[in-house]
Every structure is written in C-alpha cells, then in structure tokens.
Amino acid sequence: MPVIALLILxxxxxxxxxxxxxxxxxxxxxxxxxxxxxxxxxFSLGQALFFGLGAYVAGILSYxxxxxxxxxIPAAILGGGLLSAILLSPVLRLRGVYFAMVTLMMPLLFMxxxxxxxxLGGAHGLSALAPFPNEWVAKYLAVGGFLFVLFVFRRMISxxxxxxxxxxxxxxxxxxxxxxxxxxxxxxxxxxxxxxxAFAGAFMTHHYQFVGMTVFALDYSIxxxxxxxxxxxxxxAGPALGSMILIPLSEALRALGGFRIALYCVILxxxxxxLPEGIFHYIERKYHQFERLVKVG
Amino acid sequence: MGKTEEQAILKVERLGKHFGGVQAVxxxxxxxxxxxxxxxxxxxxxxxxxxxxxxTGFVKPDSGRVTYRGKNxxxxxxxxxxxxxxSRTFQMVxxxxxxxxxxxxxxxxxxxxxxxxxxGEYGERDDVAVDLLDDMGFERDSFVPYKLAGxxxxxYLKRLDLARAMALRPDFLILDELFSGMAMSEVASTLPLIxxxxxxxxxxxxxxxxxxxxxxxxxxxxxxxxxxxxxEGSPQEVMGTETVKKAYLGIEVEIG
Lengths: 297, 256
Description:
The complex is a heterodimer of chains A (297) and B (256).
Chain A: H1 2-12, H2 15-39, H3 47-65, H4 69-88, H5 97-117, E1 126-127, H6 135-158, H7 160-170, H8 172-176, H9 182-208, E2 210-211, H10 219-231, H11 237-252, H12 259-274, H13 279-296
Antiparallel strand pairs in A: 1-2
Chain B: E1 8-19, E2 22-33, E3 37-41, H1 48-56, E4 63-68, E5 71-72, H2 78-83, E6 86-88, H3 106-109, H4 112-118, H5 125-135, H6 154-167, E7 172-176, H7 184-199, E8 203-207, H8 211-217, E9 220-225, E10 228-233, H9 235-240, H10 242-249
Parallel strand pairs in B: 3-8, 3-9, 6-7, 7-8
Antiparallel strand pairs in B: 1-2, 1-4, 4-5, 9-10
C-alpha cells in the first residue's frame, strides 16, 4: 500500500509539493544510511559527509569533465562509498560517542577546507551543471532509489550478513571470537552507507544543477537522525516513515519562518519522551496486540 | 594422529602482563599436546582469565610468546586466532541477546573458517545451528532454541556460549569457568559432553572452580596464584603439594 502510494504520488504531486517529495526521499535515503550504520553499532552524526562527498564527486565530474548524470551518479555512488570507507576506516576502532564525534567533525572539516582554500569553486560552488532530462526522470529516480534501498536493506538485515552486523552491535568481542574480522565488516558497512548517502548527494547536485559547500551542512546530519528517532531506528521502515512525516511537515511549517525550527524541536523532544521506540515500533506493537485480541475474541 | 601427538600443539613461553601496578600474569610457561586436556585452577584474581585473554588475543602481552601448531600467534587479532581453530567461552557469557538462541550460532557458522571446513557442501545454517543446540540440551522440539537469548535462564546461556564456541568447529577449546552459576543437574549433563569432545580428539583447556568435576575429566592440572604458576601435574600430585594447599585451598579436597 505505502509503496503504491509512493509510486503514484509523483504523478499527483506537481510543482512545489513534487519537490518536497523528492526532498523527503533524499532525506529518507540519508536516514536509511544512518540506520544501516546504527545496525552494526556505529552511531553517526555525519550523514552530511556521505551526502557531501557524493554531491561533490558528481559535481566535479559534471563541471570539469562534462559527464552526463547517467555516468556521474554511478560514479558518485562508488566514489562516495569508497571515500567514506577510506576516510572513516581509521576511526572504526572508536565506539559510541567517539565515533559520533569524529563523524560530526568530518563534514565541517570539508566545508571549511573548501571555503578557505577556494578549491572546487570555493564558497561559490560549482554551478550550471547538467540537469536531469526531465522532471519525471528525477521524481522516479528519487522515489525508485528510495524504495530500492529500503527493500534491499530490509532484505539484507534479515539475511545472515545482516545478522553478523547486528551481532557486532550486541557484542563485538563475541563476534571476534567467532573468527570474523569485525573491522572489515564495519568497513563494508561504511561503504554501503556511504554509497547510499552519496547517491542522495549526487542526485541533489543534478537536481539543483549546483553544488556548494552547504552540502556538508549540519542539516544533512541532524535531519536524518531526527527522522530515525521519530520513526523508530533499527527497522529501516521506521526511519523511512520518519522522513516521510518530518520533511513534508517541516515544509508545511515553512510559513512560520524561524519559529518552525522551534516547533520542530518541540515535536522531536516530545516524540523522544512519549514514543522513545519510534512510531514504527509503536504501530507494530499495537498491531500485534490487536491481532491477538481478534484471535481470542 | 600418531607422531603429532608427541608434539606440542600449544606452547606458552614466559608470558607476562601487568595492568597498572598489578602483575596479572608473570612468567607463565606451559604446553599442551594434541588431544590433551588441561585444567587450570587458582584463587580468584590469580590470572586465569587474563591468561586465556592473552592466548586468544583479547589482551596483548607485555612479554613472552604463544605458539600454536608451530606458528607464532602472540598478540595476533582475536579473529585471526579464532580462525586458526582456537575457540573459547567467556566467564561472563558474551552472547547476542537480541537474537533468538539458535541465531547466535549463525555468527560463527558464517565465518570463513567454517565455510572452508564445510567445503562446497552447504546445508541450511539454521538447521546446523538447531542441531548443535539439540546436542547441548536445548530440545529441538521445544520453544527454547527459538527464544530470544536475552530471555533464557543463566544455565542455558552458559551452554549457548559453549555451543557458540563449538559452532566454529575448533581444534582447540578453552572453557573459562563454564560451570559457574550452573545448577548441579546442568553440570551433570554438560560434563559428559565435554568428555565426549575430548574423546573425539579436541584439545581442551578448562578453567574451573568446581574441582571435583574438573579432576574427573582432565589429564593434567596447572595451578596459578598471583599470576604465577605454582604447580603442575596430575590432580593427585598437584593437590598433594604443600604450596597449593596453603596458597589456594587451606583445606584438603577429596579426589574422585
């Protein structure tokens, strides 16, 4: 049902709300990427790093080499994934809050480096990049990419491969004593999460026909995290649902100006207090309760 | 096995480790032959678990050398050592509590070591896992193997940890106080399993406080006190030693 809705929405939604849908899908991808890392115990505060790397890889290839989007996006997925894995692999030994701190700093580092050195367009960014052929391609690529990642992740996590990742979160020493190289597994997870984030970044580069250092902004790290918290981490469906609620909501509140951020924070705080498990887990639990009630009755 | 039986499968030479000012393990040397069963005993804090952590790579030694099948494995990564076939249980069980019991075994079963040992033949891992648990006394037809590990009682967790260690198809098994916290009936049903593993050729090190049970199965005992080896030999020899009696027990233990 929700899948069909998502496939029809691009047709129904035109103009502004069509853009919001695309936007929600992109944040949804970042939230999925966040949840994937969280599955193996890596708590990231830097989805902006993946997003930004993808955006710049696509931007550079498009601006300097004039590659079309059909080439830059796959290149950005691979390149962004590899760069993310390489950049973060030295800190894989760090856990919990230390890993989070490093991931938080990384995008800021890139942002300031681009700003101060003036490289890659500096503060002005790279503009007039190749657009998508038309609006439909863009919309369906966004929705299709989002659904594809959602299903692949859901599938992966229930397979033995995902089981090992979850086990690393539970107890990494026990996984090591099962003769599994946890650092290599975590590097793979970084690549996957990085590739997904990079796709979102590359997509937005071509969507806006522009890439600037704002792609490393804190928004791209915090919003996916908020969406996951709201939707319910650990399920992929939760973060996906969370972004579908949060992004349109934040757009709807745009009229309120700066006040919307405050309102938005209040919603988040309330949801964390009232529904710490997230909406998805809550619905799941209620659904099972209901199922049982029916059976007994 | 023949000739290899005479050779040391594991050789520990002058191993040492200190944490801050505490000398946890000091100049400990010993070796095991293929198929041998060694018991390690000693009072609390005598360095038994640290010794296991040093052998299995979870703690890096300050000095000394560990050789396994002629290969230097000192300070190698835990997963590398496990991959060579040295499997262990943990004193404080380390399990994946958010997974069903049998799924805990999928982790070692999906390691490259087990893949290699099983060769091309690739049965359902879930079935292999349930089989293994069945051997450990988790009845296949009951709901126990399918329950979340976190919801199982302590005795089951200990046996699940043993099953996890055995799922790796080890050549060498290290049991760190497997019986602690187990009910007498559970000990009684687990002990024959370990004897069976031993008879099938597995080399075993067992750390245990339940001396009576330990002495029934081991070939040899080593006693640690304050990180140092104070005695080694058959259970009778060791328990006859004055230093052991004094340092460790202060009482006589009936051996049988």
